[in-house]
Amino acid sequence: MKYPYKPLVVPAALKNIPNGKLPDSLLKKVDCNGKMYAPVADKFNQMFAAAKADGIKLVNIGDYRPLEAQLGLFKERYRPAEDRDYADKKKGILVDTKRVKREYEGKTWLLRNGFAPCSTPGKSNHGLGLAIDISVTDPKVAEWLCAHAPDFGFFLQSDDPTSREFELWHWQAVAA
Q1: Which has the least CB within 10 A, 37, 50, 89, 100?
Q2: Pairwise CA distance, residues 2 & 69, whole Å
Q3: Full-prediction pTM beyond 0.85?
Q4: Which residues contact 42 (CB under 8 A, 6 or more apart)?
Q5: Position 19 in a domain
Q6: What distance, in Å, lies between the first and last C-alpha atoms of the chain?
Q7: Domain span including residue 101
């Protein structure tokens, strides 16, 4: 399966709005529940209708995230690094060099075992209303998204399925 990727481009209208602080006037409901940035919600709703017409049910498992929700998710999934995590603390070299890490509040945070990564609070494209997580437990959903989501301006944040940052469920709107 080919994984469609394009880098995220933040719309000019959102450049001066803090991540996770979008006013309700800029958000719109999406047809599978939840909210996204209004122009993106319109594109998503078109994609939702096309998927439905093809017999594919898109199930939302994560949409717009206010800053408080980003912080809660982050602290659930990550823990502050401890001395035991470092092979060389002065150089910042971890024992497990493949572990996903984030910098937040001047500290290094490490992804807990068994959790999927999420963004650092205030840096999530969910906090801009540009991303939605779709359940891909049915392989037909993932195949449909990979084949058709780009037609509606939605792409994955990576095309490398071997990366720990790769998330087949995470679709983000990319401005043309």
Answers
A1: 89
A2: 32
A3: yes
A4: 28
A5: no
A6: 23
A7: 70-111
